[in-house]
Amino acid sequence: MSDASSPWVQAAAPTAAPTAAPPQGSATAPGTPWAPDLAPSRPVYDGQLGELYSIYLRHLALMLVTLGWSRFWGRTRIRRYVWNHLSVLGDRFEYRGRGLELMIGFLLALLLVGGWAGLMYLVWIHVFHEKPFASFGLFDLFSLSVVLIGFPLAYVGHYAGLRYRLSRTRWRGIRCGMAGSAWGYGATATFLQFTNAMTGYLLTPVVSVNLARPRIANARVGTLPFAFAGRAGDIYGRYLGYYFLNILAWVVAAVVTFMAIGGTLESFGVSSDDFLKLLSHPSLRTVAVVLAIAFGAYLLFGLLILPLRCWWQAYLMRYLVTHSRAGNVLFATAISTWQMWGFLVLNYLIVLLTLGLGWPWVMHRTMKLIAGQLWIYGAPNGAEIRQPADRGPSHGEGLLDMFDVSGV
User: Fold this and answer.
1) Distance between first and last Cα of the chain
2) CA quadruple 382, 386, 392, 394: dihedral positive or negative?
């Protein structure tokens, strides 16, 4: 990793070389300049796809028998397998979560939704007097309110779920954890995403950096905190190039699509006037055909333009990783646009063609990608890391389970 690629080198560089190295095994004296050992290493994932599938298929069978209530324990078994087969600096992770904790979290979220339904019923009776609009009923009011509160609660659930998983993760016997407020993160994420949508997504770098910062800077391994030095201004130039290239690509795709449709119609002897008349009084069959053509064109050009999106996503991932650190441990990745494109496209095809049954394969490929593309420079000083004072939340990610598609 070059000096130019790391934001930490300049800040960490000593102003003067130490006169003598401290004795081996002794603690560094206070005020001694930081001189990290940047020996590179990579995580190792040695899980087997067949073993992961056997756990997953058992999980599906038990869900059918228990009408889905065994999913909390099945998810725990999958996490335990994946965590135990990932190692960093020669030591494996451990997952100490329990299925009962996940079920309690889900029941609490269910209780929250039930309380909200009761509140909406009271509003319907005492505020709207049961008939606010001719075609608007109690169920419509409840559904609309769930959509409105579900958007911020999904972000709250993401943060709370990450904090729970970290609190149940151990490395070298040390508990990981996460500080910060999930509700504060949810409010910030909701405001940023709404503002970004109102500005035509021109604030995406601001959103990406300011949502990554609390997730990274609040994470810790024992008493060893992570740090993040990213700034939105660093990546704005690259994003603006991607933004306008993306618009240009979709304009070109739309023009090519209309030209292709026009040429096809002319080959069948249908003029543009006949086509417009057909659209002015469309039948159900005409609407279905137009929608099918539009959907097919969207998928086709979406896949063709996906490399442009992957160009930005790969760059953003490299930026976030190289601007993160844990103590004297630095991180880097060299994931390329084509690696990202192949990863996303194949994952999409796996899930689509297997009707969701290829999900363990996607998880396996994700862990392989992390192990193959993440570089770790240096090692933490184990003598300075202690167990955290708190043990994390007592229950699992119920909000994430309720308001989002919750994976492992």
Assistant:
1) 31
2) positive
This prediction has a pTM of: 0.79
Q: Higher pLDDT residue, 283 or 215?
A: 215
Answer whether 293's CB lies under 8 Å from 261's CB.
yes
Quick one: which H or E segment has residue 392?
Answer: none
**Judging by beta carbons within 10 Å of its beta carbon (0-12, 13-18, 19+), is residue 247 exposed, middle or buried?**
exposed
Do 94 and 386 form a contact (C-beta atoms < 8 A)?
Answer: no
pLDDT tens profile 98-147: 999 999 988 888 888 788 777 777 777 776 665 555 556 556 666 666 66
From the CB of residue 188, how many other CB atoms can be counted at a distance below 10 Å?
Answer: 19
Residues recorded for the chain? 408
User: Which among 392, 400, 396, 402 has a CA at the least distance from the CA of 103?
Assistant: 396
Residues contacting residue 19 through CB under 8 Å, at least 6 positions apart? none
CA distance 324 to 207: 17
- What tokens does 375 get? 């570089």
The residue extents of the domains of the chain are 37-230+307-403, 231-306
pLDDT by residue (tens digit) across 67-107?
989 999 999 999 999 999 999 999 999 999 999 999 998 88
For 201: left if phi > 0, alpha if psi spans -120 to 50, otherwise beta; the answer is left
| Segment (H or E) for 292 | helix 284-322
Q: How far is residue 398's CA from residue 113's CA, in Å, rounded to a whole number?
A: 11
85's tokens = 């087969």
